Amino acid sequence: MALLEVSDFGKQFINHRLQVKRQAVNNIHFKLEEGQFLGIIGKSGSGKSTILKSIYRTYLPDQGNIYFDSNHLGKIDITKISEREMIYLRKFEISYVSQFLDVLPRITCRELVEKSLQEMGVDHAIAKVEAESALTHFELDEKLWDVYPNTFSGGEKLRLNIAMATVKQPRLLLLDEPTASLDQQSKMKVREVIEKLKHSGTSLIGIFHDIEFIEGLCDSIFNMNDHQPVTTIGNTYES
After folding, report:
1. pTM of structure
2. Where does the ABC transporter domain start and stop, copy by copy (predicted)?
3. How many angstroms separate the CA atoms of 75 and 109, rounded?
4. How many CB atoms lie within 10 A of CB 90?
């Protein structure tokens, strides 16, 4: 049974200054089975991030449906549910990793990861232990744990973002270029967590330009260049 189904999805953006509309994506169809990892590839500007942000409901599509099989809400259309229901999904079932860190400035690195767990109802003492374990895994220096992350480097912010999202062990994890500013060692840490999450039943959708990273990791690929799902990963894809 599909955990997520994107059907006839389309999204436009309006440039108010020029008074013109731009079609970001159109006629997108794909399914994600529970426990599977779907990679999305394609040229820059082809609409990959638009799809992920619409699944997370940062954007609302102009056409189509995004069906999600929620544990709590049943099968719902993310494009039509209430804001309260979407907040619930973000807390308990769907996590999103962006290339950028957007958090309140007066919360420390450690507190941010703890908060991700506490908002799910995890006890403070357990959240503290799990947060420290996640920060250690992603090799964020212990000296940074009680520092405000606005001072972090790009790579440190990205690793914190990934820790905040993955520590919740969501049912669906959305990854928007999760290895963009990471060195090879950090990329392998991300891969380890992805493999662990898949093994525990998390489903994933990820956007990648690093094709080597997803070799042997994704179960299927959706190519934005031809809007076709590919069930096996070949040697070469246009990125």
Report:
1. 0.84
2. 4-238
3. 35
4. 16
Radius of gyration of the chain measured on its C-alpha atoms: 18
Amino acid 142 reads: E
d(C-alpha 213, C-alpha 205), whole Å: 14
As a whole number of angstroms, the distance between CA 121 and CA 144 comes to 25
Q: How is the beta sheet containing 220-223 ordered, strand by strand?
A: 94-97, 172-176, 203-207, 37-41, 220-223, 228-230
Quote the tokens at residue 190.
Answer: 């991300």
What's the one-letter identity of residue 46? S
In the chain, where are the structural domains located? Answer: 2-230
Count of beta carbons in the 10 Å neighbourhood of residue 60: 12
Residues 55 and 174: beta-carbon distance below 8 Å: yes
Instruction: Answer with the residue of higher pLDDT: 170 or 1.
Output: 170
CB of 162 closer than 8 Å to CB of 178: yes
Question: Can you list the alpha helix ranges (DSSP code H) found in the chain?
Answer: 48-55, 83-92, 109-118, 124-137, 154-166, 184-200, 211-214
Considering the segment(s) 2-230 as one domain, its CATH architecture is: 3-Layer(aba) Sandwich (3.40)
